[in-house]
Amino acid sequence: MSDNLLGEYKELYAARARKFEGNPKYSNSFQAEKNLSDAMQSCSQLEEFKGKIGNKNEMCAVALVKDECLIEKAFFEKHKEEIRKLAAERILARIHEFDNSMDLVSAVIEEYNKNSIEISMDESHRQLMYDWKMVDLLEVYENAEVPDKYKQQMLESAQEFRESCLRSVESLEKNNDAWQTGWRLNPDLILEYRHKRLLPYKDEHITEQLLKYKSIVNR
Length: 219
Hints:
Blueprint: H1 2-18, H2 27-41, H3 49-52, H4 56-78, H5 86-94, H6 101-123, H7 127-143, H8 148-177, H9 193-196, H10 203-217
Helix pairs in contact: 1-2, 2-4, 4-5, 5-6, 7-8, 7-10
């Protein structure tokens, strides 16, 4: 019975290694799982494994995190997501520090929580997207050719649109300051690919609208 159990364990660990074999995206996981499997295969009795396993099982977890962060980093770089890739980058920069899964899990949670805030702060610079129509309306109402008796009313409406844009920025900066002290809207970031790709307009139209918006919100 003991020999049969040993054989089953050997097959289990061999299967774990085969799961990643030949997959270049999981080369670190394959090597870590193979090291663990080799330790098991070298045992003539199951009890020997206790003295041979060391932290090999823990290093399998470390290797898997490394591989998955490499995959994530490559994906975000392909799509020019400069902020979303930061968590994976920072974990990869520290991955050599870890030899147990508990410390690694804590670090991973910390980095992704930090990156979540970074992403929120970055995407807040998209405010022009939400105020796009307001900018258009402001321009229309300021420049509309109407009878004199309606002119003042049109200008008052334009001023309301202007103040609405300003209130939005004020509210946004106040809210984000709680997450990142001193956060300030930078409308120019809308021109970076990760933001601009969401706008269904030509580059020249975006640039034109951006200049109008910056003059409205004093940025």
